[in-house]
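TICKET: design request
STATUS: open
ATTACHED STRUCTURE:
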């Protein structure tokens, strides 16, 4: 009787270990949960923000007078040829906007499926 209980407990332990391993594997494949929550693989969203920021400044300089603070949507920058379409490391499309402050500074805010710039406000899209 004791030997049967030990074997049953061993099978339960093996089952739990297999369950944990499969959950971690599915998460790494992106099938279960947010893949980037645990691994970013060194991808930098900062570069995307810089593309938006520089494109917005060029757009502003060519179309607005100095002194106006405005918000420029990423879709506007793309449609006017100032920036290319934005994609994250997984090839997923990103959206966003840039705030032009004092006609000299541009702050970019982007929203991707697994990333969002701190302070992002979706009503500005």
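STATUS: resolved
RESOLUTION: sequence designed for all positions
ATTACHED SEQUENCE:
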């Amino acid at each position: 009787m004791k030997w049967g209980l030990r074997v049953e407990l061993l099978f339960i332990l093996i089952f739990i270990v297999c369950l944990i391993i499969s959950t971690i594997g599915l998460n790494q494949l992106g099938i279960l949960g947010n893949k980037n929550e645990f691994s970013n693989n060194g991808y930098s969203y900062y570069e995307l923000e810089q593309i938006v920021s520089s494109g917005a400044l060029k757009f502003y300089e060519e179309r607005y007078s100095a002194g106006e603070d405005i918000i420029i949507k990423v879709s506007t920058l793309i449609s006017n040829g100032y920036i290319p379409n934005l994609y994250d490391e997984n090839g997923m499309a990103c959206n966003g906007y840039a705030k032009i402050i004092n006609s000299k500074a541009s702050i970019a805010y982007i929203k991707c499926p697994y990333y969002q710039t701190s302070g992002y406000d979706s009503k500005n899209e």
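CLOSING REMARK: The CA atoms of residues 69 and 101 lie 5 Å apart. DSSP finds three helices and four strands in the chain.
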